[in-house]
Amino acid sequence: MTKPVSEIEASHSFGLRVIAVYEVIKTLCLLCVAFVAFGLHQEQNFERLVHTLEHLSLQDSSGMRWRLVQLLQEMGPSKFMAIGIVALVYAAIFATEGIGLWLRKHWAEWFTVVATGSLIPVEVYEVFHKFNWLKVGALIGNVVIVIYLIRIAMQPHHKKA
Questions:
Q1: What percentage of the chain's residues is helix, strand, coil (to nearest 5)?
Q2: Which end of the chain has less Cβ packing within 10 Å, N or C?
Q3: Torsion angle of alpha carbons 113, 118, 119, 120, nearest 10°?
């Protein structure tokens, strides 16, 4: 861990740490997605999952299980390699942001602003395309993070001796 070298860094240390932890949590979730996706790329694992979903003895009044089975069958196991690779790329980006912010690196503030800010238009589209409160929460959270980090990054930083 590094110690804050200025009053600005000290006053924003907690906020940066919260964002860093959030980025690491996203990293861990994406690593899990990648692990599962790479497993489902193998035909026998994919078929086992579809078979299990088809034969679950659960009450499914909304039909969500059958929609999931249909989606999986439409995708097929070959698409899961791409999903795993994309998940790993995003995990690497989030890990870079999280570690850089945890270490209070000035470049990480701007890196997170650019990476998070570049996805805000997509999130806005998603909110209006298929409204859901979780999407609204993610959008608001990311806008707050971007504004917060811009405010911090625009302040003068002192170089360590």
A1: 80, 0, 20
A2: C
A3: 80
Amino acid (one-letter) located at 161: A
The pLDDT tens digits for 130-146 are 999 999 999 999 999 99
Residue with tokens 């890196």: 111
Structure tokens at 71: 């989606």
Query: Which pLDDT tens digit goes with each residue over 34-77?
Result: 998 888 878 887 778 777 777 776 666 667 777 777 888 787 77
For tokens 């805000």, name the residue: 120
Give the sign of the dihedral formed by CA 76, CA 79, CA 81, CA 83: negative
Per-residue HEC secondary structure of 67-125 comes to HHHHHHHHHCCCHHHHHHHHHHHHHHHHHHHHHHHHCCCHHHHHHHHHHHHHHHHHHHH
